[in-house]
Design a protein that fits this description.
Layout: H1 2-25, H2 42-61, H3 66-69, H4 82-98, E1 106-109, E2 112-115, H5 116-138, H6 146-156, H7 160-165, H8 181-188
Antiparallel strand pairs: 1-2
Helix pairs in contact: 1-4, 1-5, 2-4, 2-5, 5-6, 6-8
């Protein structure tokens, strides 16, 4: 278990670093550009991931419930300094997951009580996939690290088809022949590489 915890925390750190690199590559004239997430601009996408990170300390460290937090992270959380806001949120989320005993806890998410290890794995996958979305939107390199892709693919494969039913994700698409792990991951989440 100790090795699994260390690996999970390593993947989490790597995923946040990957997304951070893309956030810091956004040019001033790109914040309103479209992304593969059809409803979101670059700013909307970064805002989404930032808000997700802001939830982590409240849920994991403080044991707050969704009801306790309410709408605190709805709307624009980026303010006038999106990169600095992202950096602070990512740092605090990493710190919360890394606290002694944090990954042995449970949190109450919108769909019920969830082990923090599962919550962390979902957050890693979200950061990995949205790193590709952001890279595509801003013209940054789209190649994702193999270890993160394989982690995310293993994580999302069991429930990918159910995600489309939520209305928050595009339905899976058929990957092209001879596809890579990255292409399969993206296809599972309705993206064409």
């Amino acid at each position: 278990m100790e090795n699994d915890v260390a690996t999970l925390l390593t993947r989490h750190t790597e995923a946040l670093k990957l997304f951070s690199e893309r956030v810091h590559a956004v040019r001033a004239d790109q914040w309103d550009d479209p992304t593969p997430c059809t409803e979101w601009s670059v700013r909307d996408l970064v805002n989404h991931l930032t808000a997700e990170q802001l939830w982590v300390p409240d849920l994991v460290s403080d044991g707050a419930s969704i009801e306790d937090i309410g709408d605190a992270y709805d709307g624009d959380v980026l303010g006038r300094h999106p990169r600095a806001t992202w950096d602070a949120a990512a740092r605090d989320a990493r710190k919360a997951f890394g606290e002694p005993g944090a990954l042995a806890r449970t949190v109450e998410l919108s769909y019920g009580e969830t082990p923090v290890v599962a919550y962390c794995a979902q957050m890693i996958t979200d950061a990995v996939v949205h790193s590709w979305d952001l890279a595509r939107a801003i013209g940054a390199p789209e190649r994702l690290p193999d270890a993160l892709v394989i982690f995310a693919l293993d994580e999302v494969t069991p429930y990918a088809s159910a995600l489309a039913k939520t209305g928050l994700f595009a339905p899976p698409i058929e990957p092209p022949p001879g596809d890579s792990h990255q292409t399969r991951l993206l296809a599972l989440l309705g993206r064409r590489a």
